[in-house]
Specification:
heterodimer, A: mainly beta, six-stranded mixed sheet, about 0% helix, about 55% strand, globular, B: mainly beta, seven-stranded mixed sheet, four-stranded antiparallel sheet, 11 strands
Chain lengths: ~110, ~110
C-alpha cells in the first residue's frame, strides 16, 4: 500500500526550513528518503530502520516513529540545490520491496 | 555504492511491437527491481527481478506483458510487449546495495509508443 506524503508541494526562500511528512497505514520496518531532480534518477538521502531513530545528512535530517508509522524529513537553512521532488519509500520487512509515496515537490527560490 | 547502466536511454516505438530494456550493475547487489514513472508522478513498482527464477509481479502487472529476466546477480532485462500508447513512460531499473540497503537507480529508459 502506497504511503501518504504531505505537503504535496512547497516553495521556500533560501535559508528557510521545511518538513515533509510520510505516513503509512501498515506497520513498517523501515523508511527510505530520496530526492529526484527533473530529468534525473532518484538519489538516496537516508534510510531509517528503528522506531524513534533519527538521522542527519548535512542540513537534512529525518525521524521515524515506528509506533505511529510516520516519518518526517527536515530540511534546514534550505539551499537552491535542495529543489526537487522528495519521495519516501516504505518497507514492511527487512530487504523487502520498497513502495514509494506520491512525492513532495520542493522549490527553493533566491 | 553501485552504478547502474540502463539502455536504451530512450526509444520511439510503434504500437504492437516489443522492446527490451537492459540493466547492468557494476557491483554485487542483493535485489533488483523495475519501476515505472509517468512524468510528474511517483515511482510504481512493476516487479522484483529474482535471480534464476520468475520475477515477482505487483498487482496490475503481468508476466506476459512485462517479462523480466535476471540470469545473474548484476544483470536484468525488462521487456515491454505488444506496446500501446499507454505504455509510454520512463522505466527505471533499481538495485539494492548489500551493505546499506539503499536503492540505486539507473538513469531510466524513456519509451514513447506511437
Amino acid at each position: 500500500q502506497q504511503p501518504v506524503q504531505s505537503p504535496q508541494a512547497v516553495i521556500l526562500r533560501e535559508g528557510e526550513d521545511a518538513v515533509i511528512n510520510c505516513s503509512s497505514s501498515k506497520a513498517l520496518y523501515s523508511v527510505h528518503w530520496y530526492r529526484q531532480k527533473h530529468g534525473e534518477a532518484p538519489v538516496f538521502l537516508m534510510i531509517l530502520l528503528k522506531g524513534g531513530e533519527q538521522k542527519g545528512h548535512d542540513k537534512i535530517s529525518a525521524s521515524f516513529n515506528e509506533k505511529k508509522q510516520q516519518s518526517s524529513l527536515y530540511l534546514t537553512a534550505s539551499q537552491l540545490s535542495y529543489s526537487g521532488t522528495y519521495f519516501c519509500g516504505t518497507e514492511k520487512t527487512s530487504y523487502d520491496k520498497v513502495i514509494f509515496g506520491p512525492g513532495t515537490s520542493l522549490s527553493v527560490i533566491p | 555504492s553501485a552504478v547502474i547502466s540502463q539502455k536504451p536511454s530512450r526509444d520511439i516505438c510503434q504500437r504492437g511491437t516489443s522492446l527490451t530494456i537492459q540493466c547492468q550493475v557494476d557491483s554485487q547487489v542483493t535485489m533488483m527491481f523495475w519501476y515505472r514513472q509517468q512524468p510528474g508522478q511517483s515511482l510504481t513498482l512493476i516487479a522484483t527481478a529474482n535471480q534464476g527464477s520468475e520475477a515477482t509481479y505487483e498487482s496490475g502487472f503481468v508476466i506476459d506483458k512485462f517479462p523480466i529476466s535476471r540470469p545473474n546477480l548484476t544483470f536484468s532485462t525488462l521487456t515491454v510487449s505488444n506496446m500501446s500508447p499507454e505504455d509510454s513512460s520512463i522505466y527505471l531499473c533499481s538495485a539494492r546495495g548489500q551493505l546499506t540497503g539503499e536503492l540505486f537507480f539507473g538513469e531510466g529508459s524513456r519509451l514513447t509508443v506511437l
